[in-house]
Amino acid sequence: MTATPLRLDDFLPYRLSVTSNLVSDHVAGAYRSLFGLSVPEWRLVAVLAEADGLSQAAIGERTRMDKVSVSRAARALEGRGLVTRLADARDARARALSLTDAGRGLHALVAPRAKAMEAAIFACLDPAEATQLKVLLARVEASLTAADPTAGSAADKK
Amino acid sequence: MTATPLRLDDFLPYRLSVTSNLVSDHVAGAYRSLFGLSVPEWRLVAVLAEADGLSQAAIGERTRMDKVSVSRAARALEGRGLVTRLADARDARARALSLTDAGRGLHALVAPRAKAMEAAIFACLDPAEATQLKVLLARVEASLTAADPTAGSAADKK
DNA sequence: TGATATTGGTATCAACTGAAACCATTTGTG
DNA sequence: CACAAATGGTTTCAGTTGATACCAATATCA
């Protein structure tokens, strides 16, 4: 028996990559043109709005960005007066990141816009389908990180 | 009423990006270490195995890669003796790409491996779910490309 | 306590990517 | 036919990215 030939169009890693890039480009363009934010910067703002005072390492873990990206985004945002990076009293190496008032203001501006974009992009799915999509993606992600614990983490590679 | 706050972990563009990057990295690492192929190169081989003799522009359309990436991948593969690029008799600008025997041989090696990886990565989904995932992704992709016809195409920008 | 390994964060560098400029050819269109 | 516009491909260049090396501070442990 011949194995069914591989059709690129049916190949899930390919499909996933194409769709994801399409969405990313779309969203990234909006952040950039409307707010001058890169995606890493936006992620940082978003996560700090949820949990203030995180260290860069903690942010890296939550957002699955590597520490170099976090560092760059953090400095850029600090330069724009959107976040502060206070020395941590307990650990002189670490810096606790917080949104400034300006940062909080920006977040208040960006967040609704982001939700609107999400709604627009995924308007082609009904709510149950959108949930289903999230669930499936989460399962894939979990299984993949379980298989390779070092994958995508911000932890130093051995 | 206060809008529900944006939780990054629930934000679909973010989820999609994280999962896709995880899968991509996983797969790309395998292509590279096992066969010395980059993802663009692998896509080119895969698409030529399905339809031989395509022009680079046609490949770009099918794989959603821009023409620079296609050009680079094509030249790299030609350099390795995996594809030929014959001058098209009808259009002296175009080149018809074909897999050489070696290219075909490599594809015969890579394809099963790719399918096995796909199976392993998505083993956490039952077949119906995998299909559902493809369907949902395709819908998102279609709606997004309909909204912005220039997105992701290899066509020259105006 | 000192030696060693770890960890938070930054700097550096090489690779990848895509936009724009470019060349050569082909396709309109008068 | 001639000339503008469009198309296939390549080159160039600038921006982004992540691996690696690195520095400083902390943790571990004899």
UniProtKB/TrEMBL annotation, chains A, B:
Query: What is the protein name for this chain?
Result: DNA-binding MarR family transcriptional regulator
Record organism:
Polymorphobacter multimanifer
Which UniProt keywords are listed?
DNA-binding, Transcription, Transcription regulation
SUPFAM superfamilies (alphabetical)? Winged helix' DNA-binding domain (SSF46785)
HTH marR-type domain segment(s): 1-142
**PROSITE patterns tied to this protein:** HTH_MARR_2 (PS50995)
InterPro entries of this UniProt entry? HTH_MarR-typ (IPR000835), Metal_resp_HTH_trans_reg (IPR052067), WH-like_DNA-bd_sf (IPR036388), WH_DNA-bd_sf (IPR036390)
MF terms from GO for this chain are: DNA binding; DNA-binding transcription factor activity
